[in-house]
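Practice problem 4.
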């Protein structure tokens, strides 16, 4: 439905800038055009329909006249008035059209005000802010003199050799690498990870510029992109759109990712060949930044980064994002306003790509916008919450407000079918309400489980040393306190003997000094004596721990026990187990928020899915004891991610500081509540100690709405507790 504003726009006279140069090209088997703005050096891709309409805007024709002329020339491929309005808006914002020739002063003022508002809004976005700085074309040209040979078959061969070698080494040592990552991660890693990220982006953008220059393009501008207030460089290589060779354009788009993979391969070689320490630590950060970020952002075609332009060239669909969004918008208007959607211009598989891409970008938008908002609130000290709220306002609140305004007032170019919308919105609310308030929440509470003997059954070394003597054999019955293994540590024993001699010497020296009246020397000698006696006490405890004794009565259970003779053990290493099949039980670590469902029934029947149990699968058990509070220690090493378990851990010394203890211990990054579960007698005889599994308890009674709100609030509190104390 046309209104006064629509008619006024239709009478406006627009003019394409004189500095535009149009170059025709076959894109995906269809005729398209590359538009170059010779004043700014910017490039744009448009189709035949867009070119036909823009070429008719000479400043003498009105928009309606140009639209009618386009319809005559293109027939079934012509635009409707709404599409023309969107095209004109894009062309004006991109600087391709001059708007000074509007029919009235009021329309010119409105256009100028809209442009100023668009520019101001872009500077208010705290999540992503693009700041152009200068033209680096001269610097890139000079760098290309020395590095241009890399864009050649020789450079490709060098890249392939380094990447295969580096990632081959990393694959061989993948277990150690993954364990090191899970063991060393801390809040300070964000700082070093961010520095590695920024340095990689400098290399990434330089690679784009070098490849673009090697194929005859130019780098018109560079600047800084603020992502979550983190400065990242960027270069404008849109001149590559003018390359006739599709593969030159694709290589220009992929150059940054190719270079990052090369850097990651070099970092892999460094990581494998250096000892644990700062160099290996930073090399690991570099590997993660160059691979994980590249996959999530740069290689992701759902964002308008490198992956998007590569996909667009591969499938031969220019402006793929615009076509996909237009299709989704048409489907939405069809569902909620009854407007017949315009068919996709592409056909066959290419049409399917457009449709899939349109819906994919919508899903990804919600994922990435929510994810970036949460990341901003959790990572940026002090201002993070404000940045996240501003991002949510711009990404969600403003579009909702504009949509409501469109429903109530319409737009310059059309009026919505409000009756259709009322019916469609009511149906949507009913379906959503039925899901949120009629659908029960997920009823299963799950937690990781380890099968083990009752506490005290596993005998571990309490001091480091070599196994000197084994005093028992597997299957032997022992009583509490019986000697099991004797360890030997020559260093401790030698230090102990030396200190005993030093103590006797100090005592004699003190007597001699007292007889001569040298009181000051006596005080110094007494301090040395006290320090030696304290160390002797510590050594006596360590030496006593070299004798490993049974902590309970039972049968000795051990595999390859004879091979332990002469082996070296550290504190915490398992020596053997004392127990029997009747003492096997399951220990589970339950999340703090889920423990209320576990404690709801004193004799709760639970199910345990035991990994590697063949066809038996699920076994049943009964809750026998639940700890009163959450703990961060590990009841069994099999829970730790560093040992192949499901829970993230860090060294306790890394968090709490070095307490002087020689024993290294792990702690959970998120405390959990341990619970003990009694198994059925037949399962005790069949299941082996050390097996792991998953606890399943059917207990929640919430509806989906309460469950989702509770999860979201809990996640937000946990995500912001460090930075904002919420």
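Answer key:
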């Amino acid at each position: 439905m046309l209104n006064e504003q629509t008619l006024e726009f239709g009478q406006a006279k627009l003019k394409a800038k004189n500095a535009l140069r149009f170059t025709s090209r076959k894109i995906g088997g269809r005729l398209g055009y590359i538009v170059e703005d010779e004043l700014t050096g910017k490039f744009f891709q448009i189709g035949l329909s867009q070119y036909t309409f823009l070429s008719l805007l000479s400043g003498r024709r009105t928009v309606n006249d140009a639209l009618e002329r386009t319809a005559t020339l293109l027939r079934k491929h012509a635009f409707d008035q709404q599409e023309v309005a969107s095209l004109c808006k894009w062309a004006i914002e991109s600087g391709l059209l001059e708007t000074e020739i509007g029919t009235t002063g009021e329309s010119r003022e409105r256009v100028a005000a809209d442009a100023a508002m668009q520019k101001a809004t872009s500077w208010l976005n705290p999540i992503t802010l693009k700041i152009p700085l200068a033209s680096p074309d001269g610097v890139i040209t000079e760098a290309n003199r020395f590095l241009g040979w890399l864009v050649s078959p020789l450079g490709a061969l060098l890249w392939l050799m380094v990447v295969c070698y580096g990632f081959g080494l990393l694959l061989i040592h993948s277990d150690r690498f993954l364990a090191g990552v899970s063991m060393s991660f801390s809040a300070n890693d964000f700082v070093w990870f961010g520095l590695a990220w920024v340095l990689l982006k400098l290399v990434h953008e330089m690679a784009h510029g070098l490849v673009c220059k090697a194929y005859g393009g130019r780098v018109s501008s560079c600047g800084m992109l603020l992502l979550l207030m983190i400065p990242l460089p960027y270069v404008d290589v849109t001149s590559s759109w003018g390359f006739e060779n599709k593969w030159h354009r694709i290589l220009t788009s992929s150059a940054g990712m190719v270079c990052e993979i090369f850097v990651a391969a070099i970092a892999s070689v460094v990581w494998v060949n250096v000892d644990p320490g700062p160099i290996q630590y930073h090399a690991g950060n570099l590997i993660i930044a160059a691979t994980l970020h590249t996959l999530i952002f740069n290689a992701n075609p759902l964002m308008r980064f490198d992956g998007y332009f590569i996909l667009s060239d591969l499938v031969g669909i220019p402006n793929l994002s615009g076509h996909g969004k237009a299709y989704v918008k048409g489907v939405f208007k069809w569902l909620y306003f009854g407007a017949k959607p315009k068919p996709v211009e592409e056909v066959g598989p290419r049409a399917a790509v457009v449709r899939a891409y349109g819906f994919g970008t919508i899903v990804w938008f919600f994922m990435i916008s929510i994810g970036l908002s949460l990341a901003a609130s959790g990572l940026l000290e002090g201002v993070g919450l404000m940045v996240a709220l501003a991002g949510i306002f711009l990404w969600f609140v403003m579009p909702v407000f504009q949509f409501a305004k469109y429903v109530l007032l319409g737009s310059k170019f059309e009026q919505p079918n409000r009756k259709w919308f009322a019916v469609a919105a009511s149906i949507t609310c009913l379906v959503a309400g039925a899901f949120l308030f009629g659908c029960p929440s997920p009823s299963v509470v799950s937690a990781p489980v380890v099968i083990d003997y009752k506490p005290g059954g596993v005998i571990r070394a309490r001091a480091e040393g070599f196994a000197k003597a084994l005093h028992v054999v597997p299957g032997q019955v022992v009583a509490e306190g019986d000697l099991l293994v004797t360890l030997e540590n020559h260093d401790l024993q030698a230090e102990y003997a030396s200190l005993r001699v030093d103590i006797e010497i100090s005592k004699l020296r003190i007597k001699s000094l007292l007889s001569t009246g040298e009181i000051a020397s006596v005080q110094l000698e007494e301090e040395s004596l006290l320090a030696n006696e304290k160390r002797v006490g510590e050594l006596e405890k360590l030496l006593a721990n070299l004798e490993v004794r049974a902590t309970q009565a039972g049968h000795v259970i051990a595999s390859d026990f004879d091979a332990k003779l002469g082996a070296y053990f550290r504190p915490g290493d398992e020596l053997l187990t004392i127990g029997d099949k009747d003492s096997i039980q399951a220990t589970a670590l339950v999340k703090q928020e889920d423990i209320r469902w576990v404690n709801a029934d004193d004799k709760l029947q639970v199910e345990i899915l035991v990994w590697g149990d063949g066809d038996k699968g699920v076994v049943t058990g009964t809750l026998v004891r639940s700890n009163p509070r959450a703990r961060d220690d590990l009841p069994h090493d099999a829970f730790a991610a560093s040992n192949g378990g499901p829970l993230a851990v860090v060294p306790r010394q890394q968090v709490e500081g070095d307490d002087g203890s020689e024993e290294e211990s792990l702690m959970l990054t998120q405390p959990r509540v341990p619970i003990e579960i009694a198994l059925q007698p037949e399962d005790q005889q069949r299941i082996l100690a050390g097996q792991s599994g998953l606890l399943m308890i059917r207990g929640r009674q919430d509806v989906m709405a309460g469950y989702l709100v509770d999860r979201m609030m809990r996640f937000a509190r946990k995500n912001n507790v460090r930075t904002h104390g919420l």
